[in-house]
């Protein structure tokens, strides 16, 4: 539970508002019922139930965009109604709403909600003792909204930068192993739900250490960057490439098996053979391929691809080895022999 709150910023804001609503609004609702102020009590209760319902929806579905918007509308409209029903004391509830809207929904909607809330109170006018108080309140509300906008905007930019640093390999610009783990989990879940085939390819540059030792790490880095570019140019937009570590990469191929998978792998092998170069000559790679089995865990899937890659390296390099050759070739309607680099 705490992990989700730590990793999902908007969900944490919704949860915080729900906790504040339970602890902060409930006593006022009870007090107003006891005082016989039924309209104010009903307003407080409606706000409380609305925020808690949005939290439940966000938690169950993971859709924090819609639930965040719903909470923003609830708290702003609720604050306006409280100001109208209760009067001057109810105005103070609008200030925290003006701040949190920018963290619950996008900036444009938050600005519209904040302006609409202040204008609605000004048009009604019943919550203010004088015009001076009304315009003073409007000015302070504008300042609070402007400060909240600036802070929320900078916070959003910083979170995006941190997420980029945490999920992208700085050398090649592709997703790193952390992203790979998440995407493989999603792929396995989608395969179970839809029956869509998924192929996992582990590829390793042959004799990469020798390239680094003889020509320097700068040349080695250039080889990695060049290979990533070639793979990007020769795979589909739906395919995903990850840097697994060092000179090892993982390619996730959705919706391909059998003849299609064999053709894709042959093409990638030929492309790397033809275009991958370094000062000492051509560069090749070894491939281990595994099709996801029904009900298989991601760890097992990855282990089978890794074992196939190990076999490709041990049996001569510049080879494509399928973890389950018979199953793959049955789908292709061909031979079960591993693909050779010869």
Automatic annotation (TrEMBL):
Reactions catalysed: 2 GTP = 3',3'-c-di-GMP + 2 diphosphate
Stretches that traverse the bilayer: 12-34, 40-60, 67-87, 93-122, 134-152
Signal peptide start and end residues: none
Gene3D superfamilies: 3.30.70.270
Annotated EC: 2.7.7.65
Origin: domain of life: Bacteria
A Pfam family this chain is assigned to: GGDEF
Cofactor: Mg(2+)
Matches recorded under NCBIfam families: GGDEF
The protein's name: diguanylate cyclase
Organism of provenance: Marinobacter subterrani
């Amino acid at each position: 539970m705490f992990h989700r709150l730590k990793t999902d910023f908007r969900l944490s804001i919704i949860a915080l508002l729900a906790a504040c609503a339970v602890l902060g609004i409930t006593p006022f609702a009870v007090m107003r019922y006891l005082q016989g102020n039924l309209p104010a009590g009903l307003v407080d209760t409606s706000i409380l139930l609305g925020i808690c319902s949005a939290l439940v929806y966000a938690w169950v579905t993971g859709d924090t965009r819609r639930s965040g918007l719903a909470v923003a509308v609830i708290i702003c409209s609720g604050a306006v109604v409280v100001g109208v029903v209760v009067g001057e004391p109810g105005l103070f509830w609008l200030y925290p709403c003006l701040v949190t809207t920018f963290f619950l929904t996008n900036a444009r909607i938050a600005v519209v909600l904040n302006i609409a809330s202040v204008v609605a109170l000004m048009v009604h006018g019943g919550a203010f003792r004088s015009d001076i108080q009304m315009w003073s309140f409007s000015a302070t509300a504008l300042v609070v909204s402007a400060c909240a906008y600036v802070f929320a905007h900078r916070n959003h930019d910083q979170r995006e930068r941190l997420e980029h640093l945490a999920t992208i390999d700085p050398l090649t610009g592709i997703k790193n192993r952390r992203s790979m783990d998440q995407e493989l989990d999603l792929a396995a879940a989608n395969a179970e739900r839809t029956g869509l085939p998924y192929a996992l390819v582990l590829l390793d540059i042959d004799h990469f250490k020798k390239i680094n030792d003889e020509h320097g790490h700068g040349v080695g880095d250039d080889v990695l960057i060049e290979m990533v570019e070639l793979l990007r140019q020769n795979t589909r937009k739906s395919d995903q490439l990850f840097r697994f570590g060092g000179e090892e990469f993982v390619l996730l191929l959705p919706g391909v098996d059998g003849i299609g998978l064999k053709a894709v792998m042959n093409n990638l092998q030929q492309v790397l053979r033809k275009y991958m170069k370094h000062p000492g000559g051509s560069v090749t790679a070894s491939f281990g391929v595994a099709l996801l089995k029904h009900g298989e865990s991601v760890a097992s899937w990855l282990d089978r691809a890794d074992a196939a890659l190990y076999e490709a390296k041990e049996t001569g390099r510049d080879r494509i080895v399928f973890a389950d050759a018979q199953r793959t070739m049955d789908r292709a309607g061909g031979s079960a022999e591993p693909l050779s680099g010869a």
